[in-house]
Amino acid sequence: MQNSFHLDAVPIRLERCGKTFAGGARALEPLDLTIRGGETIVFLGPSGCGKTTTLRIIAGLESPDPDGRVLFGEEDVTALPIERRNVGMVFQSYALFPNMTVAENVAYGLKVRKIARADRGRRVEEMLDLMHLGEFAGRRIDQLSGGQRQRVALARALVVRPRVLLLDEPLTALDAKLRDSLRLEIDRLLRGLGITAVYVTHDQGEAMALGDRIVVMAKGRVAQVGTPREIYYQPADGFVADFIGTMNRLGGLSRGGTLSIGSATLPWSGPEGAVELLVRPEDLALAGEADGHLGGTVAAAVFLGDRTRLVVEPADGPALTVDAAGRSELGRGDRVWLRVDPARVLAVP
Ligand SMILES: Nc1ncnc2c1ncn2[C@@H]1O[C@H](COP(=O)(O)OP(=O)(O)OP(=O)(O)O)[C@@H](O)[C@H]1O
Q: Which residues form the signal peptide (predicted)?
């Protein structure tokens, strides 16, 4: 990024960070996780899985159960309140001062930290530049669009040069198109600044696009930690497989070094026995009757422009989603054959 603005990237370590709320509800099972300096880590999961609680523990808005520790670099910050952790936060709800100008909002954190006026002015200007907000400096917040407000919120969080940037569903309140463009902007910003960032979302597309690594959570537990590719191609279990992208369940059997699918018996070197067999739509191919493994009828066809997404019902077993390449004329009621590459079939517990 062509800007003098630079942040030190600290690693964050969570050690046995669980959370039990008054009344005994366990929102978070004890969690151990190291977030590398400069890494963007995304907590992803359905509502109520504990992602916001984890973020709030990192921020210092919530303390972990006794025994849990939060470290920023070598410093144990477990007992420090949020104002002494030097974190920047961005929320879905913006949390800006509506009757102050953009520049005043961005300057606020510097004022609280008693930064001298001249220095303040320079840093605000630098930050507004970075967020392409220069022309809005004198506008009041209630005169801005949602996307512009969220850029102000980012500027306000970053101007104090936080050790870590925490983002809680920052794009959820915006419409789809704005969400996409601001997501790209956040991506550029995080890469450019090299800041350690923790991002909470329930949107898998956002998680895949922004995360260096994704922590998939379910019911207060970590289901899997991995890069977007690891999570997509090697899901740890059926929950992760279903939560990220589209996944097919193959009604087949793995036994004695073979995989039986439809009328075909294929060589198989994966786990056998009580496993679920899964395959991504892009790893199924349409074929002819002679070289197909599994016959079925097209139950639905959705034209997506570059491809047509088909739902194919085999004679027995679950329906399968498969993509036909552009300009395919396949439609409801057509009889098709599918080929399965056994090397692409996943077996999960
Ligand atoms: N202050 C609180 N007191 C009691 N229970 C709470 C409190 N805050 C959260 N919880 C509970 O802890 C669990 C995890 O909540 P959390 O907000 O971390 O989930 P989340 O994954 O961020 O969900 P969402 O996407 O809906 O915000 C939920 O069951 C929630 O009801």
A: none
